[in-house]
Amino acid sequence: MTQVFNFSAGPAMMPTAVLEKAQTELLNWQNQGTSVMEVSHRGKYFMELITEAEKDLRQLFNVPDNYKILFLQGGARGQFAAIPMNLGGEKGKALYLNSGHWSATAAKEARNFIELDEVSIIEKDENGVISVSRTDFSDIAEQYDYVHYCTNETITGVQIKEIPNVGNAVLVADMSSDIMSEQVDISKFGLIYAGAQKNLGPAGITLVIVREDLIGKARQATPSIWNYETQANADSMINTPPTFAWYLCALVFKHMLAQGGLDVYKKRNAEKAALLYSYLDQSAFYRNYIAKANRSVMNVTFSTDNDELNAKFVAEATAMGLQALKGHKVLGGMRASIYNAMPIEGVQALIEFMKKFEAEKA
User: Fold this and answer.
1) For residue range 119-138, what is the model confidence (pLDDT) as tens digits?
2) Whether 198 is catalytic
3) Active-site residue identified among 29, 56, 102, 178
4) CATH class assigned to 17-259
5) pLDDT in tens, 294-318
6) Which of 91, 127, 232, 359 counts the highest number of beta carbons within 10 A?
7) Does the annotation mark 102 as catalytic?
8) Residue 2: is its pLDDT beyond 70?
9) Which fold has domain 260-360?
């Protein structure tokens, strides 16, 4: 194999065209004779960049006018704390829907700032297959300041494809690992957040899309770096932002628009996932333990159910240029992350290797 395919769950692969564009501009951005990393974040050229990036993102993701877009630091973990500090001041209570590791981690952090109820929304059958058991919370949601869930659990590969029904309550979504893999109705959410390192750009910058009426309610003790009102009033720049990461996200937005937008990416992602899951379903050697209705389009987990074979699979795949297929340490097994930037040729190469490995080891 001459081409390397990177199946990392994050930081993940980025579009080749974007990296090539950044490479050509690295030493001479906007004909300034300097790198974008070397110019003032408050200067004319960088301010034009962030204005254009927001415009492109609004067009790409259909972000309504009554939502603010913030580019912050601290990753999704930072938002685990920022959200209760900003949104949990009226009733002092939130509902967290637990679908796996990251939603549970968000709830654990939030307990430092707000009273909360945590409800598991997944169940496992006698064969170990995981499914989402409930998405309608309209009967209880309005007693809370907000309801939080994770749309896609990166570790297990569980994706919640139906937006939870929370009545008139504020719905908050961690979309870190499936944001902009398809279009969503943003008006159904009070706040969406995502670490950039899956589909948007490199690690180091975090996207927050928040409805304007939810801004300005932060607790007095909220640090300014986490205060949405302070950040919105300062163009997400109360301190020096990660300018290179912001620049790369801006290039990704341009690239995605040039490719035809999210409808194109939804179709591509569905084709990649269907190809890989179809092979897994016909194989008696590999197992996927997620119910078909909740299988992630972004993170495909599988196992031989033999730790020694799993380790050999990862080692031999890596040697063949199929990188980062080792499953998360929490779960083990294998995981193929096939985000927006992964071409279908990568999935095809993976399946060919899987067939070869199965023929040799089964």
Assistant:
1) 999 999 999 999 999 999 99
2) yes
3) 102
4) alpha beta
5) 999 999 999 999 999 999 999 999 9
6) 232
7) yes
8) no
9) Aspartate Aminotransferase, domain 1 (3.90.1150)
